[in-house]
Amino acid sequence: MNEPHWIQWARALQAISQTGLHFTEGLYDKERYRQIGKIAAEILAHHTNLSEEKILELNASEFGYATPKIDVRGVVFMDSKILLVREVADHDRWTIPGGWADVNDTPSQAVVREVYEESGFETQVAKLLAVYDRAKQGHIPPFPFHVYKLFFLCEITGGFAHAQGETSEVAFFGEFEIPELSIARVKEEQIRRFFHHVRNPDLPTDFD
Question: What is the assigned CATH class of domain 69-207?
Answer without folding.
Answer: alpha beta
